[in-house]
C-alpha cells in the first residue's frame, strides 16, 4: 500500500486538533499517535516521513516483528490488552496505555522492580461501563490509585479510555469528562498523571475538546482496515 495522501490527511487532522484545543479551552498539547495495527512496516515509515513520531499497536505479537523491520526511531505505544505472561514486552514500548486489571498492574509493578526502572503506564478506565470493554470503573479509580501509591515499579502517567462507537456527542462528552475526572483523582493522590489518552478516528475532536493529550488515530490516516 502506498499511503500517498498521508501527509495531506495529517495536516488536516492536525488543524482540526488545534481548533478543538482552542474550542475546549484546556490549553493542552496533543500527541498524535498513528495506529498502525493490521498495516505493515511501510505504514510506520510513511507516518515517520510525514512527521509522525508516535505509533500505536494493540498486539505485542504483531508489534514486535514490525519494530524489527522499522529502522526509524519511532516511539511505540502499546494500546491494547497485555497478557500478564507477556509483561516483559513493555520494555519495547514508550508507554503502556492499557493497564486494565489489578493483576496486570501488579505484574507490571513487579517487572519494573526487577528491571530497576519503573514502567510508564496509563490506567484504562471504562467510563461507560460497557461490558464488552476492559478497564476499571470510575468508582475503582480512587482505591486503585491509593493501592498504586505503594507500587513504585509502575509510574501512573494518566488515564486511557475508549468511548462507545457511534455514540451521540453528549454521551461522548460524558465519557471523556469522566476519564478526565479519573485522571485528576490520580493526580490528587500524587501520581504524575498528566496524560489523557482518548479519541479515535470517529471521536477525536470531541476528545480533544474535553482535554485529551494523546489521540490514537488509525482509519482516518491509513484508511479502513481489512480486518
Ligand atoms: C484500533 C484502535 C484505535 C484506532 O482506531 P481508529 O478508529 O481506526 O482510529 C485506537 N485505540 C485503540 C485502543 C485501538 O485498538
Structural features, described:
This protein has 227 residues and is α/β, with parallel strands linked by helices. It has a single domain (3-222), classed as Alanine racemase (TIM Barrel). 41% of the residues lie in helices and 17% in strands. It contains 8 helices and 8 strands. The protein has helices at 6-24, 41-49, 60-69, 102-115, 138-149, 169-188, 204-209, 219-222, and strands at 31-35, 54-57, 75-78, 95-99, 119-124, 154-160, 195-197, 214-217. It has an 8-stranded parallel sheet. Strand 2, helix 3 (60-69) and strand 3 form a beta-alpha-beta unit. Helix 5 (138-149) runs parallel beside helix 6. It is globular, with a radius of gyration of 17 Å. The two termini are 15 Å apart. The mean pLDDT is 96. The structure holds pyridoxal-5'-phosphate.
Q: Notable features of this structure?
A:
227 residues; alpha/beta; TIM Barrel; 17% strand; binds pyridoxal-5'-phosphate
CATH superfamily: Alanine racemase
What is the ordering of alpha helices and beta strands? HEHEHEEHEHEHEHEH
**Which overall shape is indicated by the principal axes computed on the Cα atoms?**
globular
Radius of gyration: 17 Å
Q: Assign the structural class, choosing from mainly alpha, mainly beta, alpha/beta, alpha+beta, or little secondary structure.
A: alpha/beta
